[in-house]
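Q: How do we represent a protein-ligand complex in a form that can be generated token by token?
A: Start from the inputs.
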Amino acid sequence: MAGRLLLVCRVLVRDLRRRPTETVLLLIAITAATGTLTLGLALNEIATQPYQQTRTATAGPDVVAAPRATGPDALAALAPLTTAAGVTAHSGPYPVAFLVLTAHGKTAHAVVEGRDNAPAPLDRPAVTDGTWVRPGGVVLERAFADALGVHTGDTVSVDGRALRVLGTAVTAARTTYPYAGWTSPDSALTERGGLVWVDRGDIAALAGEQPLSYTLNLKLADPEASTAFVDTATTSPRRTVHGGELTTWQDIAEADGRPVAQAQAVLLVGSWLLTVLAIAGVTGVVAVRVSGQRRRVGLLKAVGAGPAMVAVVHLAEYLVIGLAAAGTGLAAGLLAAPTLIQPSAGLLGSVNTQPPALYMVVAATTLALTIAVAATLAPVVRAAATSTVHALADAATPPRRRRWRIWLSRRLPAALLIGIRINARRPRRARLVTMNTLITTTVLVAMLMNHAQDKPFDLGYSELVDPRAERTDQAMLVLTVVLCVLALLNAAVNTWTAVLDARRPLAVARTLGATPAQAGVGLAVAQLLPAVPGVAAGIPAGLGLYTVASRGGIQYPPDSWLLATALGVLLAITALTAIPAMAIAQRPVADTLRSTPT
Amino acid sequence: MTGSTLLAARGLTRRYGRGSGLVRAVDEVDLSVPAGQTLAVMGPSGCGKSTLLHLLGGLQRPTGGKVWLAGRRIDMMSERALARLRRDSVGFVFQSFHLMDELTAVENVELSALLAGQSPRRARQRAMHLLDRVGLVDRADHLPSALSGGQRQRVAIARALSNQPLVVLADEPTGNLDSAATLEVLRLFDDLRTAGQTLVVVTHDTRIAAVADRMITMRDGVFVDDSRLASAATGPVHDGRR
Amino acid sequence: MQDVVLAMLAKEPAHGYELRSRMRDALGPLGDAMNAGQIYVTLTRLAKAGMVTSQRSEGLPDRPDRRVYALTPAGQERVSSWLAEVSWPKPDLTEFHLKLVAAATARLADPVALVDAQRREVLRRLRDAQRAALDRSVDPVAGLLLEGVVLRLRADLEWLEACERMWTGRNRKAGA
Ligand SMILES: Nc1ncnc2c1ncn2[C@@H]1O[C@H](COP(=O)(O)OP(=O)(O)OP(=O)(O)O)[C@@H](O)[C@H]1O
Ligand SMILES: [Mg+2]
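Then emit the structure tokens for the protein with adenosine-5'-triphosphate bound:
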């Protein structure tokens, strides 16, 4: 047993060392997929961790009650809640007014809450800059302040009254900007807006005519039972509050995570696309490797290795690469997560993804191994199952003969003729090219779609940054960059193998009188032919993907953009092929004929 | 030196293709090789020598007939059993050596011992011993690319001997070698013959006859001649044209 | 044979037995087959032709192998012209070829059987020569001669195979 293990390890290590380029290519391809998946999963943490930290730091309530009624009615509705079963502590009720805030010429909805200077037992907003409320001053929720560009010491006006900004703070009792829950006094509609705090004594003056609303923070004996508490409170016969007027901390946490959710969806969908791309890339590399290893398969069998042993020797290599790639992908994703995707400024704390959660490790490893196995199993099994004699003869699968293409190509100019025949030789490789361009184009088009969405982000009166769109854009950018790198790598590998494989037929074509230029162009044509359907299908696929993933009014990018994308992809492939093709076309024919096996 | 029958075939047949493309690579041949015999199978290119050897070693399955090795039918064995057979009882030597390029000479030799589940230490000892036997201990740590053709073939022979096979099957072992390297390999085979190793060599190199006890001539898949050669004639040698 | 003996005397005069052992060394295993008396017969003929002279050595019985032989000027000349000569011994295939043709036309024997018998004989010789060459103790210079013999015999075998193919084809046609 030890001997066989030694043998497997030895062959594995030697093989990895002998072909460093391919090893690195495989690592990169699988890492790209696992890294993106990790990034997507890490966003989960980003969505929940900061809220938890903020909730702990600010003594966040378990349930927040905000009746739609105003004035004394509201206070009457809230009073019984403070003594309801399960409630262990409360703070408030605090008066709330839905006003308009103007700063630096920008106007936005503001939920104004009146607070005492003394710390409350529940919901003590954590001051991140400056001081807590005093009469005559205002404290802004940090994300809101950031969006407006307001700093401590600035002056803002609330419904026309100038107030000094005393500081910024964060809370866990209300969803952060822009979902603070601004309710128009004359309609029940909730609109976007940010939260500010003023002294309890100042709020009446600020609200003016507007009746005050009230909000009450409750602490429960069992925070996990918050939903049950809400159900009982809103359905009991003696209820004073109605459905929708009580909010649990879980609801707030979910809402706070929402800006990240779309970005997460982008990355998760993206990681699937990358997985396909990675499989395509790995398949390409593995096909080259396994065909190089065919003779070894035969030899192992001749000295008495069974099919299982042969498969193990070859699979082990890719499993090791897969595991390594899972590690690097995990590390890359986790390292990149905090810098690429900032947690909301409306929450406290940093995202800490180290050590990674177990499920992330499992997911990344599973994905990496799946890619490795999916791409390698078929060729390895095929190799292990070929007859020993056949494998020893090292007969590469003979090129396919496609009658109609040969017939067709006879009627075309020499370069096209060469291209079509080379293309017809290796249908599987041609399919990889199609797949590669299909996915690249799909993502590029989806990216374009995202750009084309010119959604106004209405904050009552002026347009501010939408944190959700901002994060989606970030995620899209990350995805596009990773994907383009991977696609380029795939294309490079594919071209490289195509060039190697076509060396001999090209040399023969040249002995028959084809010029180097015709040979080079022919090779480029061979790579372009399968790319065209990929690009053509990628455009509707990208449009469709975006349409399915996003809701509501979609705007389409101009046709010229789509056309430019398509041409760009094709151009990139041409350029990638042309360089090596020209290089081999420059070599003397006799050299090629001598150095390649028949 | 020869004993009971080690390798036998009855009505052994291998056909390729069908209809007008039918090729009878091996056509109902009967064969019996006693233990310790060195058998040379000769014949023109394409007469079915390699196919015969592959059938005898369980590398290929016959389309008809039976093969016995050490009294066991091998033509109907499972793939697993065949793998074990090749590991334990048969050593192959090929025209193009088929060494693993990434393994050193000694690592190539110990390959089958490791596959057979021997401990790495014992496998290494045995491999070094075999390399010594083929006169290549000083090249043990060289990669095949750093060895000459004759040396590679000797490494391959050492590998074939690794598990003390019942029979060594060699297919054109000198086909890629020049005359000096051929001599090295022939000497090695001669030593094996003296040591009583059963050996079947397929070739169209008549020099192999020098180390054979028996020579079979094949043509179009059938045996046309089977001559037992006087063993180790050391009498006067004439060059035959004076 | 005469030329070889003359050339061996070119360096310095030598005893008959010295000449003989030099020959044997150069021929290696093939030298064993050399007839001992042959060299003295040759020397006697050369002396008659005036190519060598011989002297009795002191204190030794007067036997051909104890005499010291030396080249005469005529002998010297003959050695030089021998070295410059480029003629090559012809393998005598004609006779065997004609044997086959005669056998076939006169229906004396089956040419294929003749070829087969001849092939066995050549094969046996090849095998002996190759065996001799395999011996690791063979002097490399002598081994060279063996290699030449082997190569020649292999060529003969190939030719015999061609003969066999030809005559088998003829037979078949004749039979059909
Ligand atoms: N896979 C195959 N499919 C069809 N025919 C085959 C196959 N393998 C071998 N043959 C045919 O079987 C016959 C015998 O082949 P084999 O390789 O055994 O010959 P050989 O005597 O070893 O020749 P050589 O001396 O050239 O190696 C040949 O006519 C060959 O064309
Ligand atoms: Mg063969």
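Chains A and C do not touch (no CB pair under 8 Å). The radius of gyration of chain A is 32 Å.
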